[in-house]
Amino acid sequence: MTASQAAAALRAQPAQMTGFKSLLWLALMVLLWGLSWPATKLALNTVPPLWLAAIRFGSAALCLFGLLAVRGKLVLPTRVDWPIVASIGFLQMMVFTGLGMIAMVHVDTSRAVLLAYTTPLWGVVVGWLALRQTPTRWQLAALLLGLAGIGLICSPWEMDWSAPGAVMGAAFLLVGAISWSVVILHIKRHRWSASPLALAPWQMLLATVPLAAIAYGLEGAPTEIAWDLRLVELLVFIGPIATSACFVISAEHGRRVSTFAMSNFTLGVPLIGILASVLFLGNQLTVLFAAGLGLVVAGMVLAATAMVRAR
Hints:
The chain is mostly helical. Helix content is 78%, strand content 0%. It is globular and about 50 Å long. The two termini are 35 Å apart. It is found in: Membrane.
């Protein structure tokens, strides 16, 4: 090995260690996000869904405002960034989470997390219809696989459509996933003035205020919530840990890995959520659900692969 090669190898070692640490942090993020689904289901036994969504983003926003203030990076969004603040705050946080928590009252957690994370599939449809982006063969294959999986999971042989709220719950989850896909397309086209982390607490605040107002109107004042130590632990995990801390991890370490790697990382969230729901909530996985899960995951992998090939 020449001197120049040895020097290059030494310079590469810190970068490799940084990349490895980022992968570990992202793995922790995916684990926490996955575990937040059964934790949310347990909290919904005590807290109404819209109030739970408001508490989640309100507590997470306070944590991020405090973190950015300590770092000296707390700034007001500029006029350039307000559209993305509104898009993420209203569509991803308010609509996706609010509808998702209402749906989880009526749909078991395994199906809820899987239907919610069909977002990459709907991104193909939204890009096709709204942006005239003709899908490639890979994207069409991903969409067909995913839709076939959704069809199995939502079929009359797998879901009891006569159960109260079953149809509404599944529809809410799919509408939330479509809303999130619109946000993803907006994020790709937005020219950021401030960093995503600097804008995150404002997005959470923008989601919290209308969520709390709607919750007060539909669910009443949160005075009848039976507070105890177990509920506080669940709320701390769902808000400050699984929302604000994971957002910091995503912002700090997500940019240090490839888009394909990040896409594959997020595939772990529904898988962990489903496994945790089986272990902690006693959800049952049927053969038909497993087949639908395999098709949806295959569709997500193909969608991520098609995105990388397009770039």
